[in-house]
Amino acid sequence: MSALAKYLIVDGFIVTGSDKVYTSEIQLLRDMGAKVIIGHKAENVKNANIVVYNSAITGQNVELNYALKNKIPIISRAQLLKMIARQFKFRIGIAGSHGKTTVTSIIAHIFMCSNLSFTAHIGGNDKILGNLAMFGKHMFVSEVCEFNKNIRLFEPDLALCLNVDNDHLNCYSDISLLKDTMFEYLDKASSKIINIDDQYLKSYKNSSLTFGITQGDYTIKNERKLESGLINFDVFEYGKHLLNLTLNPKIYYTHHNVLGSICVARELKIAKQYIINGFDSFSGVERRNEYLGSFSDKPIYIDYAHHPTELKVALNICGDNLARTLVIFQPHTYSRTRLLFEDFIKVLSACNNLIIYKTYAAREDFDYEGSAERLSKAIKQSNYYNNEEDLVNHIIKYKDNFDKILVLGAGDLYITFKNLTKKRP
Hints:
By secondary structure, this protein is of the alpha/beta class. 34% of the residues lie in helices and 25% in strands.
């Protein structure tokens, strides 16, 4: 939402807004000229010509109700994204249950190194580009979210789908409907790129390009781990050697993220040297295995992982050090926890030192069946906390039991631990 607000400010619109809590992102918007109020009040929208709301806003919101009552035009965030995208000659959509933000960021770096005219709308904060990279108005690249079927509104010329997983099942009665929605999104585009390794996407028959570790138009061979911890491998295009990459696996995460990004670039006929330069330029995204600093002499890493599949990847990065890692997980929404309860138990049971922190409810009302407390009770070796003071006290008291701290989740613990690292007790 903030990236779209930035775009509108640069495009000459007067932008106002409101949020529940103050963040650095709000300060950035204020510095750009937006008027942002902390707290939702009807008076905040009195002078608005259009009111934009995101999917976290419920029908009980006082600002939304005021707009409805006073016949102020209302559009969703997804509708605004569609309107902005239509200003560009060529639109690229990055979809999938996992990896959208990383891939969108990598593509933005490749485009930047290629001196292309583009704007990138990124769902997280790239460490160099932020969440909005404006380098022209020819191409628009955006990650598109499947939540609430918002993906149906985006109109891509080139559509990439990374994977399909059992997320947002509160919006889809079963995963087959999610798969169908992804297929509908792909069908809109003239160029369609899919991960052929994905168990659902491999049945899609109309793709322009495919990628996979060992099968597809783009593949990976000759992988080796270097003493530095980096990974080196060759990328093949239609069976012929294309390029060699040396990358940090803690930054780009998966081979499929790499291949998906390369497919987009090659579909646009970008030279291989610009692709290599783009990967060299990319230094990661905030909240993706990000080092925050230290507290109680323990390094703190934070990751946005909030789905069992993502948790597994984040924990695998720890390797043999997982046994000496304090893992703090904050579930994101009650519905996701309830629907994937057994999957969460299976993944998190691999942790020796585990804290489950109170659920970040986002748009949902309390539901004990999907609560963090119930999840903690189901995992014997875990501790449950519902306030920051007890959480911090645990870290201080048991700091000899672990060597580092890994914070997982898409909630507000990111702000908590950013502030905590500044205190340095």
